[in-house]
Structure formats: structure tokens, C-alpha cells
Amino acid sequence: MSVAVGPAGGAAGDPGPETRAEAREALAAAARPRRFGAWYVAEHRFRVMRSYLQTVLVTGFGNPLLYLLAMGLGLGSLVSANMGPNAVDGVSYLAFVAPALLCTAAVTVASEEFTYPIMLGFKWNPTFYGINASPISPGQIIDGVVIAVVARILGTSAIYFAFMVLFGAVPSPWGWVSILVGTLGGLAFGAPIMAYVATLEQDTGQIAMLMRFVLLPMSLFSGTFFPLSSMPWFLQWIGWISPLWHSTELSRVFTYGMSEPLWLSVVHVVYLAALFVAFWLWSRRIAARRLNK
């Protein structure tokens, strides 16, 4: 009685040990994107950032130097000359404004990375559709974008903090926590923008309007350059709902020990975290609905 022999020496229909091993390797390779898909997307975003790395470095190092010189030492010297060295909240104007500048830088980075790159991935150069054709899910695409943005905001905030230390604007040993606070504030501001931009089919000026009529007023009316309490009462509500005000106030607690009730510090953290998580999850749903049509 003869027995048919398979390609690897086994019976007919049996793929053989070598073929089975190759199949297991293929299955393992296919499982990796499902497990680490967000990190693959983040790697893609890092590679894209390399195309404008010079801009990232120039703004990352140039902005803190110029802003701390102009606002902290330039304007700060005028404030100190007229109101004394500890005229604002019991500290120098430089110590008062520096954490706000750090948080503003974090918010600015978030506004850059959560607007045009999102529009690029969905519309102008629809790489998100190509990525979604692989085992990587829409949710992982959003997660990967967030990971990359977190890395850039952390780097920008760390550089800003280093300049703050060099300028003597961090009296408290807990000042380094402002790096994390600024990052959380940037995410809390950027996640709603990401969710909104993910819904756009065409950009007819909406992103530019966000920059001019949301980001700019927020930076002026969030207690950034002067205490929020010094503003008219009918404008203070802008600060109360602004992620920038919450992150700035919390950063001041850590950089120079600003006096604030503990419950208010908790409110800052909860508000920023809730804003980020809610709109991050919403962005995942929007991406799934749009990419899986």
C-alpha cells in the first residue's frame, strides 16, 4: 500500500513541520500590529516630524529664550521698578509669568500637532486610510498620534523648564512637576481640537479661525500675563473654562508655591484629565466611523 508524501516528507495533506513553523511566524507577525499598532503609528508621526525638525528645534529653544527675556526680564524689570521686586502674588514678575509661558508653549504645540496633521491623515494625504487597511485599527491610529504629540509636548516643556531654571524663575524644588502639568494642559486643549478636525471634510479656514479666535484670546484671558482676578468679572469666565488657566494655576503652585486651596488644585487636575479623556475617546469613535465607511 503506497502513501502519498507531502512537500516536507509527511503524509499528503500534512503541510509538514517547516510549513507549520512558517505559518506560526506569519500569524505572530500579523498579531504584532494589533498589539503594538499605536506605537507603529507614533513611529510614523516621529518620522514625519523629522521633515520639520529644524522648526521644532528652533521654536523649542528659541521661544523660551526670547519670551523669558522679553516678558520676564524686559517687562518684568518695569513691573519691579514700579511695584517692587515681589509685586505679583508675592514673587517677581518673572517667577509669576514663567510657568504660564511654559503652559502656553505646551498648548501651542498641541494646537499645531492636532490640527493640520489630522487633516493631512484624513484628507490631504490620506495615510490614515492606508494604515487602516492593515491590522491597525482606527482607535490605534488616534492613540499613536496622541503618543507622538505627548512626546513632543514633554520635550518642549522640559526645554522650557530648563530655561526657567537658568533664569532663576523656579524657587520651588517641586517646579519640575510643571512639565507634567503643562503636558496635561496641552492634551486637554488639543484633544477637543483633534475631535473637531477629524470631522472636517474640507478645510475652508476653520483651522485658521481656531488659532485666531480660540487660541489667541485664550492666551490673553487665562491669567497668563496678569492674575485672572484683575480682569473684569464678566471676562473671568473665559479663564474658568480654559485649560490654559487651569494648567497655569497648577504650575504656579509647583514652581513658586502659589497659595491655593487643595480642593482647587484637585479641580484643576480632574478638569484637565476629564477634558482630555472625553475628547480622546470621542476622537477614536469619529475615526472609526470615518475610516470604516
Characterization of the model:
- There is one protein chain.
- The protein has helices at residues 16-49, 53-83, 93-113, 116-124, 127-132, 138-166, 177-198, 206-220, 236-241, 243-256, 262-291.
- It is mainly alpha-helical.
- It has one domain (39-291).
- The radius of gyration is 25 Å and the shape is elongated.
- 40% of the residues are buried.
Chart the SSEs and their pairings.
Layout (H helix, E strand, L loop, with lengths): L15 H34 L3 H31 L9 H21 L2 H9 L2 H6 L5 H29 L10 H22 L7 H15 L15 H6 L1 H14 L5 H30 L2
Q: Low-confidence stretches at least 5 residues in length (pLDDT < 50)?
A: none
- Supply Rg: 25 Å
Distance between the termini: 57 Å
How would you describe the oligomerization state of the chains in this entry? single chain
User: In percent, how helical is the residue content?
Assistant: over 70%
How many beta-strand segments? 0
Order of helices and strands: HHHHHHHHHHH
Number of helices: 11
Q: Which structural class should the secondary elements be placed in?
A: mainly alpha
Describe the main β-sheet briefly: none
Number of domains: 1
Q: Name the overall outline.
A: elongated
Residue-averaged pLDDT, rounded? Answer: 89
| Strand composition percent | under 5%
Give a concise summary.
The protein has 293 residues and is an all-alpha fold. It has one domain.
Feature tags:
single chain, about 290 residues, mainly alpha, elongated
